Amino acid sequence: MASFVLPHIHDSPDGAWGPPQNLPSPSSIPYAPYSKSDKLGRFADWNNTTSTGMTSTYPDGAPRGPGGGRKEVFGSGTGAFAYFHVEDESSFSVVDNNTRGQAGQRGRGGAGGARGRGGGRGGNTGMRQGNQAGQSGRGGGQQRGGGQRRGWRDFDKNARAREASVVISPAWNMLEEVEFHRLSKLRLQVDDPEDVGSYGRLYAYDKNYDRITTKTEKPLQLVDRLKYNVTTSDDPVISNLAQQGAATVYTTDAILSVLMTAPRSAYPWDIVITRTANGLFLDKRDGGAFDSITVNENAADPPAPGEGINSLGRLSLEATFINTNFASQTVLESAPALDMQNPNPFIGGEDENEPVASCAYKYRVYDLGITEEEDVRLCVRTEADAYAPQTKGLVTIRALNEFDTRAPGAGGAPDWRTKLDSQRGAVVATEMKNNSCKLAKWVVQSILAGSEALKLGYVSRANPRDNTRHVVLSAVSVRPTDFAAQLGVALPNGWGIVRSVIDMCMKHPEGKYVLVKDPNKPVIRLYNVPMSTFTAEDDMVEDLPDVAEEE
Predict the structure, then answer these.
(1) SS3 per residue for 94-137
(2) Which residue ranges of the chain lie beneath pLDDT 70?
(3) Helix or strand or coil: residue 38?
(4) Model's pTM, two decimal places?
(5) Do residues 266 and 166 share a domain?
(6) Is 300 within the bounds of a domain?
(7) Domain extent at residue 481
(8) Of all residues in the chain, what percent carry a pLDDT higher than 70?
(9) Over the stretch 72-103, which tens digit does the pLDDT of each residue have?
(10) 3 state SS of 383
């Protein structure tokens, strides 16, 4: 084997930078002219063969052409050091930045929290506080000259990393990881539920809103009504049912709908699961993902985080504000109310004399057992927002919102004022694409509650640059089961996901767990966490009721 001899190093005796002046010129390197316009080539190429399409040289150093003949060495970029493209950069693509976009929007930034009390009272002051808090900032990327380049850094939009809905502590132990494509294959047929109690009071839905058009729009009013969003373990009715052994799993329709539509979700979320002796309690964190409504979650270019009025957080706050007021505005409090079997279980103390929003809570038990020997029952608290004047059936009320069709994150939505009356199908198709997960959750919630109708309102800003004033452009009524078929929502798949999560948690010992949706991947993970987790933050499941022992 030939030995390797290190070459002699020529050192400059006077310490000057560079090689010494008397260094002999290399004789084995061919001459090649150099120009400032030449691109930097490779310093060395150990795979320089004719089979790769690159040039080689004759033994005397002259370059060899592609056809085998001598290649003329003259001109810029044609020498022995020129760079030739090979397959290692085949994945490189160029983004066209020549087109110009619309002018940037000028808005006021800031963040304001929704009003809440003790785990879930919804209100309206958070919207005003959010706008007052951000009056010193500008949002939307204003540019001099009036234009923002469309396509600038488009290649990086899909690579934006979202933050998780909860900080994963190093003390947490990951137990399970399930991809969404596996969840999409699950199926479970479930029979009709058993009603174990109804609470609250409902008002009649105002049918005049079904006749609104874009030419007869109505302003969205600020209706100050209490709307409770209490988590599972803080629900006094569920506590009593757990002591009676009514079921083995307890949750709310908001949490259950997220599980049943998990493969559609793009934004992160987390569910706190407490495993007791013979049951599970599925809870939300106060101030978490379940206390706000998403906007264009499934759009190809969803809203980005920031401080402008069209940022991710501000749009979510705006959508929550719109839904809370739209549901209260579209009911007739002057008409006779429909009282459930029991009064509202959450009214008491300082809230006793304050007006409460129209809402009915139905507690229903579903049998998720696959065989007759299995005893897997799920108790869910469902909600309805109004009743139909003619049939006295339950009605669920929700609202879609339009912010600015020219703003980033609009998802290519058409202008509602010009298209909603004449091309409603195009508007609905765009919303079904951009808000697939949100609409699917609303449909599931209405089916769980047994609502005969789902009222969808179309609410837009009075001025695209002002997120405090809105108008109702239209309202439509759909049957939940029919709309679920249009959205492609399969309830057997949703129940299969729920049963899979239940089995995943029941095989572990008693304790506290957190089911987390990865912020950037279609994956859910189950973590085992200490029992003290989240208790200092929101005092959740501090006095969790015990599930009755099976006889």
Answers:
(1) CCCCCCCCCCCCCEECCCCCCCCCCCCEECCHHHHHHHHHCCCC
(2) 1-2, 10, 12-13, 15-16, 18-160, 536-551
(3) coil
(4) 0.72
(5) yes
(6) yes
(7) 158-347+354-538
(8) 70
(9) 444 444 444 554 444 444 455 555 444 444 43
(10) strand
